[in-house]
Amino acid sequence: MPVRIRDSPGASPPSHRFNLTSTAAPGKMGSVNNPLPATVACTVGTVSTVGSPSAAPAPTSKLVRYAWLSVAAALITISLKAAGYWLTDSVGLLSDATESLVNLAAAVVAVLALSAAAKPANARYTYGRSKAEYFSSAVEGAMIFAAAGFIIFSAVDRIIHPQPLAALGWGLGIVALASLVNGIVGLVLLRAGAKHRSPTLRADGKHLLTDVITSVGVIVGVGLVALTDEPLLDPIVAILVAVNILATGVKLLRESLAGLMDAALSEPDTEKIVAILRSHTRREVRFHGLQTRVAGRESFCNFDLLVPSTWTVREGHELAEDIAEELRAAVPHLRALIHVEPLEDPRSYEDIPEGYVPLGGISDAVPDIVVEALTTGKNDDAATSQK
Predict the structure, then answer these.
(1) What region does 262 belong to: left with phi over 0, alpha with psi -120 to 50, or beta?
(2) How far apart are CA 135 and CA 129, in angstroms?
(3) What contacts 336, CB < 8 A, 6 or more positions away?
(4) Residues 6 or more apart from 319 whose CB is under 8 A from it?
(5) What's the pLDDT at 308?
(6) Is the distance from CB of 36 to CB of 30 less than 8 angstroms?
(7) 39 φ/ψ angles, rounded to the nearest 5 degrees
(8) Which pLDDT tens digit goes with each residue over 331-353?
(9) Phi-psi map region of 46: left, alpha, beta (phi>0 left; psi -120 to 50 alpha)
(10) What DSSP string runs through 187-250?
(11) pTM (2 decimals)?
């Protein structure tokens, strides 16, 4: 029985004490042909939370503007670093310019991913396209591997065939200016990604800041070449740059693949959910089967709420509604799916998933009333077979 959660977060919590009765509905404990007594409410249903307008994240379409900012920054830095390489013929500066090419490609993919994620849900994608953002991070990570391979190849060739560098002062000044652009845009993207829970903007921001660190290393390395007049330092710096961005690529791929595979919420958020469920646990109210996952900017959890079958539908609904509101307040933008089941029905304990989060205490224990029902059922079957 689907039950709708109200969207007004400012409403006062409803009371759970009602004297309502309900007719039986099809479900786990009864059917149309075999209805339950009128005083027993059918407690099978699903309760889902819907984020209130005040708590909802910004529309994904607005985040596309940040991705275009990243595209602009990549174009500027590519031009600057390419000019620096043309002036100096430094393979270190070439490696830095190559990474900026990856930034440009990743920014374009980010625009496409965010545009796809902004599209509303439809009959084909009933949950929307929020996971499209993870493809952007995965593509960016893969491009980093390609860039690192090119940098290492160029550096090894320069070690075999060393060449003197020229106009190092101008080249280093241009790279420093490009790094300033990347640093400012990277911080803007990181803040926007954290504020709007966008894995695409966070990945792009981290990559730009990694590019800044890379550029600083290049400046130091090429500066040492100017001071020591040792050209081999230039390709060595380029190789170190390649190793650094490879580490970034591995991290981006790991994070994006975890998101595509429905990784669980972070440990702090999961602990908040468990604490709230345990605070509501008592002899007649239990929970089990907790699962959590992250999909792009959305967070989800689902679990079973077990209440006495003598409760009315409204009593179970109001409790689930209050719990959902507490969860949303503790974990912003969380959507909770709560399945209400009868506490005494042994079948309520047959649908616990394998990957559930243990709640501890009496929540993980089967109530005595269920054990008694199972035991009674076995004795009745034995007595029947003896007859």
Answers:
(1) left
(2) 11
(3) 47, 48, 49, 300, 301, 302, 303, 323, 324, 327, 328
(4) 16, 280, 285, 305, 307
(5) 92
(6) yes
(7) -85, 0
(8) 977 889 999 999 988 889 888 88
(9) beta
(10) HHHHHHHHHHT-HHHHHHHHHHHHHHHHHHHHHHHHHHHHHH--TTHHHHHHHHHHHHHHHHHH
(11) 0.58
Q: Which of 282, 279, 278 is nearest to 290 (CA)?
A: 278
Collapsed DSSP state (helix, strand, coil) of residue 308: coil
Is residue 43 predicted with pLDDT exceeding 60? no
Q: Which helix (H) or strand (E) holds 256?
A: helix 233-260
Taking Cα atoms as reference points, which of 66, 133, 144 lies closest to residue 105? 144
Bridge partners, 341 (sequence order): 306
3-state secondary structure of 91: helix
The token duo for 221 is 């390395």
79 SS3 class: helix
- Burial of 1 from C-beta contacts in 10 A (0-12 / 13-18 / 19+): middle
